[in-house]
Design brief:
heterodimer; A: 33% helix; B: six-stranded mixed sheet; 4 helices
Chain lengths: 132, 167
């Protein structure tokens, strides 16, 4: 059976300053006011855990893409590809963060993976029983 | 407060998500639900009076570590390499996986964890000791909660020691 294709992902673009604070957002997936008074790092521990590395990227280098993120905050549910790049100048730069909603793609892949993994584990168990 | 990124990795179905959920939320689900992509959450651990914020990455299991997206490892200080004591396929590639991770992240702290100890008899465990390609650091049961806290505490202790040594 042919694999389904997934395209035209909805996306949100944000700009972070060097402290990780949001300075711009197009709010296409979630309005940043939903973060209430919490910081980017509190809402997105993933960003907190990588932010130091982003500060050391080259300006305009290929973005770092983190695929299949399932955010732990309650205002963004599903699966998303996050990508981060450094823009501006060496002395005055920002981190560009793009969030792409790939929920349909990863939900499909998760179901496929569940079937595959279950069958591999079952085959291993069956082999172990036969060997005993 | 010191903050460190820690990744739970290993083959699929070994109990990475169960260890993650047990440690963070004291939750356990008997039904195996495969993980896709990555989920990140944090927990502050008190290690001998020092507070450490552990930023934990629960990632999709892969049979071989070179299949994990490189970006997942960016900035990681700790790795928890989990295998299933009841499934030899999950520790078959352990030596090459660990070597790969050490090359990718020089200086990273790695804990090798045999999970599902609740399903292993002492006789089988004795045999396993001779079959494992590398020595393990700790044996856990995410289901029973055995040694789960101990695992993260031991890792936290190493991470704090390394952080203070490298200052």
């Amino acid at each position: 059976m042919p694999q389904p294709t997934f395209e035209n992902f909805r996306r949100q673009e944000l700009l972070l300053n060097q402290q990780g604070e949001i300075i711009e957002s197009d709010n296409e997936l979630f309005p940043i006011k939903m973060m209430a008074n919490l910081s980017t790092f509190e809402c997105f521990p993933l960003v907190a855990s990588m932010f130091d590395s982003f500060l050391h990227l080259e300006i305009d280098a290929t973005p770092v893409t983190v695929p299949g993120v399932s955010p732990s905050c309650d205002f963004l549910c599903g699966f998303f590809d996050f990508s981060f790049s450094k823009i501006g100048t060496i002395d005055d730069f920002q981190i560009k963060w793009v969030i792409e909603d790939c929920t349909d793609k990863y939900t499909y892949l998760k179901e496929e993976m569940q079937i595959h993994n279950d069958s591999v584990i079952k085959a291993e168990r069956d082999r172990q029983k036969q060997d005993k | 407060m010191i903050s460190k990124k820690v990744i739970l990795t290993g083959s699929f179905g070994v109990g990475k998500t169960s260890l993650f959920n047990k440690f963070l939320y004291n939750r356990f689900n008997d039904k195996y639900m495969t993980t896709i992509g990555v989920k990140v959450d944090k927990k502050v651990v008190n290690v001998d009076g020092s507070e450490l914020s552990m930023l934990l990455w629960d990632i999709a299991g892969e049979v071989s570590q070179d299949k994990v997206p490189h970006s997942y490892f960016l900035g990681a200080s700790g790795i928890i390499y989990v295998f299933d004591l009841t499934r030899p396929s999950t520790f078959m590639n352990m030596a090459s996986d660990i070597e790969y991770l050490k090359n990718l992240l020089p200086g990273v702290t790695i804990k090798i964890v045999g999970n599902k100890i609740d399903l292993v008899t002492p006789e089988r465990m004795a045999k396993l000791e001779t079959e494992l390609p590398l020595p393990y650091d700790i044996l856990t049961s995410a289901k029973e909660g055995d040694q789960v806290e101990d695992l993260f505490y031991a890792l936290g202790k190493d991470l704090i020691t390394n952080a203070t040594t490298n200052v």
